[in-house]
Amino acid sequence: MSEKRAVSPLVKLGLELGPVVLFFIAYSRWKDEVFTFGGTDYSGFIVITAGFIPIMVLSTLLLWKLTGHLSRMQLMSTILVVVFGGLTVWLNDDTFFKMKPTIIYALFAALLGIGLLRGESWLAAVMEGMVPMTHEGWMAMTKRMCGFFFALAVLNEVVWRTMSTDTWVSFKTFALPLALFVFIMSQSGLIARHKLPKDPGQ
Protein backbone atom coordinates (compact mmCIF):
# COMPACT_ATOMS: atom_id res chain seq x y z
CA MET A 1 0.00 0.00 0.00
CA SER A 2 1.32 3.44 -0.84
CA GLU A 3 2.50 5.60 2.02
CA LYS A 4 0.41 8.70 2.73
CA ARG A 5 2.08 11.94 1.72
CA ALA A 6 1.34 15.49 2.82
CA VAL A 7 -0.13 17.81 0.21
CA SER A 8 -1.37 21.38 0.28
CA PRO A 9 -4.96 21.50 1.60
CA LEU A 10 -5.86 23.88 -1.24
CA VAL A 11 -4.51 21.48 -3.86
CA LYS A 12 -6.40 18.58 -2.26
CA LEU A 13 -9.61 20.62 -2.08
CA GLY A 14 -9.18 21.73 -5.69
CA LEU A 15 -8.78 18.16 -6.92
CA GLU A 16 -11.79 16.97 -4.91
CA LEU A 17 -14.18 19.80 -5.77
CA GLY A 18 -12.69 21.06 -9.03
CA PRO A 19 -14.47 18.58 -11.32
CA VAL A 20 -17.85 19.38 -9.76
CA VAL A 21 -17.29 23.13 -10.10
CA LEU A 22 -16.21 22.68 -13.73
CA PHE A 23 -19.35 20.64 -14.37
CA PHE A 24 -21.50 23.43 -12.97
CA ILE A 25 -19.72 26.10 -15.06
CA ALA A 26 -19.99 24.02 -18.24
CA TYR A 27 -23.65 23.26 -17.57
CA SER A 28 -24.40 26.95 -17.02
CA ARG A 29 -22.79 27.71 -20.38
CA TRP A 30 -24.08 24.88 -22.59
CA LYS A 31 -27.23 23.55 -20.86
CA ASP A 32 -29.55 24.76 -23.64
CA GLU A 33 -27.38 23.51 -26.50
CA VAL A 34 -28.07 20.37 -28.51
CA PHE A 35 -25.11 18.48 -30.00
CA THR A 36 -25.35 15.92 -32.80
CA PHE A 37 -22.93 12.99 -33.00
CA GLY A 38 -23.38 10.13 -35.44
CA GLY A 39 -26.87 11.30 -36.30
CA THR A 40 -28.00 11.28 -32.65
CA ASP A 41 -28.91 14.44 -30.73
CA TYR A 42 -27.49 14.88 -27.25
CA SER A 43 -28.48 17.58 -24.77
CA GLY A 44 -25.86 19.80 -23.23
CA PHE A 45 -26.25 17.89 -19.95
CA ILE A 46 -25.33 14.58 -21.63
CA VAL A 47 -22.31 16.01 -23.44
CA ILE A 48 -21.05 17.74 -20.30
CA THR A 49 -21.45 14.48 -18.39
CA ALA A 50 -19.33 12.75 -21.04
CA GLY A 51 -16.59 15.31 -20.44
CA PHE A 52 -16.97 15.13 -16.67
CA ILE A 53 -16.10 11.42 -16.52
CA PRO A 54 -12.44 11.64 -17.70
CA ILE A 55 -11.92 14.83 -15.68
CA MET A 56 -13.13 13.07 -12.54
CA VAL A 57 -10.91 10.06 -13.22
CA LEU A 58 -7.88 12.26 -13.91
CA SER A 59 -8.51 14.29 -10.75
CA THR A 60 -8.75 11.12 -8.67
CA LEU A 61 -5.54 9.71 -10.16
CA LEU A 62 -3.70 12.97 -9.48
CA LEU A 63 -4.99 12.99 -5.91
CA TRP A 64 -3.74 9.44 -5.42
CA LYS A 65 -0.40 10.30 -7.06
CA LEU A 66 0.15 13.31 -4.81
CA THR A 67 -1.11 11.87 -1.52
CA GLY A 68 -0.53 8.15 -1.94
CA HIS A 69 -4.02 7.63 -0.57
CA LEU A 70 -7.68 7.82 -1.56
CA SER A 71 -10.62 7.95 0.82
CA ARG A 72 -13.24 5.28 0.38
CA MET A 73 -15.80 7.97 -0.44
CA GLN A 74 -13.57 9.50 -3.13
CA LEU A 75 -12.87 6.12 -4.73
CA MET A 76 -16.50 5.01 -4.62
CA SER A 77 -17.70 8.35 -6.00
CA THR A 78 -15.30 8.06 -8.93
CA ILE A 79 -16.38 4.51 -9.70
CA LEU A 80 -20.05 5.51 -9.65
CA VAL A 81 -19.34 8.52 -11.85
CA VAL A 82 -17.79 6.21 -14.44
CA VAL A 83 -20.61 3.65 -14.20
CA PHE A 84 -23.64 5.94 -14.01
CA GLY A 85 -22.10 8.67 -16.14
CA GLY A 86 -21.27 6.05 -18.75
CA LEU A 87 -24.85 4.74 -18.69
CA THR A 88 -26.14 8.31 -18.98
CA VAL A 89 -24.10 8.94 -22.14
CA TRP A 90 -24.59 5.49 -23.65
CA LEU A 91 -28.37 5.50 -23.20
CA ASN A 92 -28.69 9.27 -23.73
CA ASP A 93 -30.70 9.49 -20.50
CA ASP A 94 -29.79 11.79 -17.61
CA THR A 95 -31.70 9.67 -15.07
CA PHE A 96 -28.69 7.52 -14.20
CA PHE A 97 -26.34 10.40 -13.44
CA LYS A 98 -28.95 12.12 -11.27
CA MET A 99 -29.35 8.91 -9.27
CA LYS A 100 -25.63 8.72 -8.44
CA PRO A 101 -25.80 10.78 -5.20
CA THR A 102 -28.75 8.67 -4.07
CA ILE A 103 -26.75 5.47 -4.56
CA ILE A 104 -23.67 6.87 -2.81
CA TYR A 105 -25.50 8.17 0.26
CA ALA A 106 -27.79 5.14 0.53
CA LEU A 107 -24.78 2.81 0.31
CA PHE A 108 -22.91 4.66 3.04
CA ALA A 109 -26.02 4.69 5.23
CA ALA A 110 -26.44 0.95 4.71
CA LEU A 111 -22.80 0.18 5.52
CA LEU A 112 -22.88 2.27 8.68
CA GLY A 113 -26.18 0.65 9.63
CA ILE A 114 -24.71 -2.85 9.23
CA GLY A 115 -21.85 -1.88 11.49
CA LEU A 116 -24.28 -0.55 14.10
CA LEU A 117 -26.24 -3.81 14.05
CA ARG A 118 -22.96 -5.58 14.81
CA GLY A 119 -22.31 -3.20 17.69
CA GLU A 120 -19.44 -1.56 15.81
CA SER A 121 -18.70 1.88 14.44
CA TRP A 122 -17.22 1.47 10.98
CA LEU A 123 -17.00 5.25 10.84
CA ALA A 124 -14.40 5.07 13.61
CA ALA A 125 -12.29 2.72 11.51
CA VAL A 126 -12.08 5.42 8.85
CA MET A 127 -11.79 8.56 10.98
CA GLU A 128 -10.41 7.47 14.36
CA GLY A 129 -6.95 8.82 13.63
CA MET A 130 -8.43 12.25 12.87
CA VAL A 131 -10.90 12.48 15.77
CA PRO A 132 -9.97 10.40 18.87
CA MET A 133 -13.19 9.61 20.75
CA THR A 134 -14.61 7.00 23.08
CA HIS A 135 -16.51 4.01 21.70
CA GLU A 136 -19.77 5.53 22.93
CA GLY A 137 -18.96 8.74 21.10
CA TRP A 138 -18.27 6.93 17.85
CA MET A 139 -21.46 4.90 18.13
CA ALA A 140 -23.50 8.07 18.64
CA MET A 141 -21.73 9.81 15.76
CA THR A 142 -22.28 6.79 13.52
CA LYS A 143 -26.01 6.71 14.26
CA ARG A 144 -26.30 10.38 13.38
CA MET A 145 -24.22 10.01 10.24
CA CYS A 146 -26.23 6.98 9.14
CA GLY A 147 -29.48 8.93 9.48
CA PHE A 148 -27.96 11.96 7.78
CA PHE A 149 -26.78 9.99 4.74
CA PHE A 150 -30.17 8.31 4.45
CA ALA A 151 -31.87 11.72 4.56
CA LEU A 152 -29.56 13.03 1.81
CA ALA A 153 -30.37 10.00 -0.36
CA VAL A 154 -34.10 10.62 0.03
CA LEU A 155 -33.68 14.36 -0.54
CA ASN A 156 -31.73 13.81 -3.77
CA GLU A 157 -34.49 11.54 -5.04
CA VAL A 158 -37.13 14.16 -4.26
CA VAL A 159 -35.18 16.97 -5.92
CA TRP A 160 -34.30 15.26 -9.20
CA ARG A 161 -37.69 13.62 -9.60
CA THR A 162 -39.81 16.70 -8.85
CA MET A 163 -37.69 19.67 -9.90
CA SER A 164 -35.92 20.94 -13.00
CA THR A 165 -32.43 19.85 -14.07
CA ASP A 166 -31.21 23.40 -13.37
CA THR A 167 -32.40 23.10 -9.78
CA TRP A 168 -30.84 19.65 -9.37
CA VAL A 169 -27.45 20.78 -10.70
CA SER A 170 -27.38 23.70 -8.23
CA PHE A 171 -28.54 21.37 -5.45
CA LYS A 172 -25.83 18.83 -6.27
CA THR A 173 -23.07 21.44 -6.63
CA PHE A 174 -23.81 23.64 -3.63
CA ALA A 175 -26.53 22.33 -1.31
CA LEU A 176 -25.18 18.80 -0.76
CA PRO A 177 -21.58 19.85 0.13
CA LEU A 178 -22.93 22.67 2.31
CA ALA A 179 -25.27 20.27 4.11
CA LEU A 180 -22.37 17.90 4.82
CA PHE A 181 -20.22 20.77 6.12
CA VAL A 182 -22.98 22.09 8.38
CA PHE A 183 -23.69 18.59 9.71
CA ILE A 184 -20.03 17.98 10.58
CA MET A 185 -19.75 21.36 12.29
CA SER A 186 -22.91 20.65 14.28
CA GLN A 187 -21.27 17.59 15.84
CA SER A 188 -18.68 19.64 17.74
CA GLY A 189 -20.62 19.25 21.00
CA LEU A 190 -20.71 15.46 20.71
CA ILE A 191 -17.00 15.35 19.89
CA ALA A 192 -16.15 17.58 22.85
CA ARG A 193 -18.13 15.38 25.26
CA HIS A 194 -16.52 12.13 24.12
CA LYS A 195 -13.06 13.28 23.14
CA LEU A 196 -10.29 11.15 24.56
CA PRO A 197 -7.77 12.89 26.85
CA LYS A 198 -4.36 13.57 25.36
CA ASP A 199 -1.59 11.13 26.11
CA PRO A 200 0.65 12.81 28.76
CA GLY A 201 3.67 11.38 26.99
CA GLN A 202 2.91 13.26 23.79
From TrEMBL:
The keyword Zinc-finger does not apply. GO terms for cellular component: plasma membrane. It is found in: Cell inner membrane. The keyword tRNA-binding does not apply. It is a multi-pass membrane protein. The chain crosses the membrane at residues 12-30, 42-63, 75-91, 103-124, 145-162, 174-192. Keywords: Cell inner membrane, Cell membrane, Membrane, Transmembrane, Transmembrane helix. It holds the Pfam family IspA. InterPro entries: YciB. Belongs to the YciB family. Plays a role in cell envelope biogenesis, maintenance of cell envelope integrity and membrane homeostasis. This is Inner membrane-spanning protein YciB. The gene is yciB.
